[in-house]
């Protein structure tokens, strides 16, 4: 009985990680204006490259999860990050594990928009298997965009129980 419960719990946790499932979530359309989604006027001369990368990533909000995906038909977590940076002429590796080797580590108190957050969401070998892009830091709340197998591309708070426990490291690549 205990083995069954542990198995069900393990499978449930794997289903919400980045690359644990090839199931495609349904696409959610949003009628929220871009300004309210975190989008800021893009033609500003003071816009940083980090702002532009975040703006690009936010345009994928609602795209369903697809293992190995890198387009609007479906994306996984590293596909979202890789594509968002590539569209702004910044080259990053394709997988979260390879992205983890880039840039330099920064403490959470110094995290800024455009930094990467790395997570371990399963007991599989290795450390990193999920990545997210910081979209905002306000009043100590760090929000990041990523793609989950259960909900597709979404913006989440780092301080939700699940993501806080799975967090490994923050890195700056810009």
UniProtKB/TrEMBL annotation:
Superkingdom of origin organism: Bacteria
InterPro entries listed in its UniProt record: NLP_P60_dom, Papain-like_cys_pep_sf, Peptidase_C40
Keyword annotations from UniProtKB, A to Z: Hydrolase, Protease, Signal, Thiol protease
Gene Ontology MF terms: cysteine-type peptidase activity
Signal peptide span: 1-22
Family as reported in the entry's similarity comment: Belongs to the peptidase C40 family.
Species: Tenacibaculum holothuriorum
Organism lineage string: Bacteria, Pseudomonadati, Bacteroidota, Flavobacteriia, Flavobacteriales
Residue intervals of the NlpC/P60 domain: 47-174
GO biological process: proteolysis
UniProt-recorded name of the protein: NlpC/P60 domain-containing protein
């Amino acid at each position: 009985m205990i083995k069954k419960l542990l198995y069900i719990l393990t499978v449930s946790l794997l289903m919400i990680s980045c690359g644990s499932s090839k199931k495609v979530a349904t696409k959610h359309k949003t009628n929220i204006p871009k300004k309210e989604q975190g989008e800021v006027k893009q033609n500003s001369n003071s816009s940083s490259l980090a702002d532009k990368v975040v703006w690009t990533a936010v345009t994928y909000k609602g795209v369903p999860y697809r293992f190995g995906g890198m387009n609007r038909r479906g994306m996984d977590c590293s596909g979202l990050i890789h594509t968002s940076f590539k569209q702004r002429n910044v080259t990053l590796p394709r997988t979260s594990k390879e992205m983890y080797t880039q840039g330099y580590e920064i403490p959470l108190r110094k995290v800024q928009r455009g930094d990467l957050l790395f997570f371990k969401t399963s007991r599989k070998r290795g450390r990193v298997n999920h990545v997210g892009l910081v979209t905002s830091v306000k009043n100590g709340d760090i929000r990041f965009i990523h793609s989950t197998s259960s909900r597709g591309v979404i913006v989440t708070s780092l301080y939700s129980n699940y993501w806080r426990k799975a967090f490994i490291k923050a890195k700056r690549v810009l």
